[in-house]
Amino acid sequence: MHDIKWIRENPEKFDHGLALRHLEPMSASLIELDARRRQAETAAQDIQTTRNSLSKQIGMAKSRGEDAGQIIAEVSRSKQAQAEAEKSAQALQEELTNILSTIPNLPFDDVPEGKDESDNVEVRTWGELRSFNYQPKEHFEIGENLGLMDFDRAAKLSGARFVVLTGALARLERALAAFMLDLHTGEHGYTEVNPPALVNDATMYGTGQLPKFGEDLFRTENGLWLIPTAEVPLTNLAAGEILEDAVLPRRYTAMTWCFRSEAGSAGRDTRGMIRQHQFTKVEMVSVTRAEDSDGELEHMTACAETVLKKLEIPFRTVMLSTGDMGFGARRTFDVEVWLPGQDMYREISSCSNCGDFQARRMKARYRPEGEKGTRFLHTLNGSGLAVGRTLVAVLENYQQEDGSVIIPKVLRSYMGGREQINPDGS
Asked: Which one is catalytic: 289, 389, 396, 404?
């Protein structure tokens, strides 16, 4: 959510930020709407002041034994006028809020300008790409040949974009999630949370999923929403709170199922586990001071990268251009894992600094040490990692020519000491 006061004071900066998002200028229309709102509020206040004065005159007239009927009638008329002015101000406020809630966050000045993902800027790479003496297979070929990844049965149960994992692959996905949680809580300073996967409208609104992206979500008949990511409940833990400076930053991590309708991705990644309606993800969320949020984003991105380093899987990190960033982000780093079966890098984590954009929607504040007033928190979120996509990366990078898959060393203790998954199930 944008601050209309800031827009009034910085209309050119606001419109420039929108231009980077490939949107038309909006400051003039927003300022005009806000002026009408403030005018209606002022009118209501002026009427209240006048009515207070008239009420005193009624008392004085009665004390002198005079007829106060005309004054009483005027007070009655002023009540109606005030109610109409207040109603107008409320309607204008709702209109302004509704518009502001659909406008994306503004990118930081150093974010690369661009129209889409082709303008993203590579920041660093890690690891050596494995050389194969055969044509590497994609993950779904590997999983199906192992007999442990079944899309057909999943389709019978639920439809397209679902999968049934069994045996060693089901355990491997669970092992990946446990490994990530242990790493983030044991070494990276995050507190594990087990949050609800069903949330209300206000919670979805707080992180920016509503009202703009309702079609990308699943909604139950009783009005609750299935979370698209644990970012939603984890960030909203600070909603309506005033945190003390000493407790910041607050860092949370959670492993949840995530649910997305993928309404805008028809025809993309229709085979395999890359883009599904239900998937497992380990999420990281931080709430922190404004001056610390950039450093916190670097920390969060490094945590996501560390998962892949310990798995010994190559990746690259890119800064997203203004045309590729998500709705709530001011700066985003994507970690992209190498998939030899696809012969390309694919996103496996997206780490974003949202500034105070979400905190304004959630009314989440902190009290700086030594200050009486409060400020809005800065919120950050990132995948640490998408578990299904990490399973994909393990299968493709650790595949063997005979169809078996080597289990990364850091996962073997989670797999009961197992070192390999063979086509015969051994």
From this structure: 389
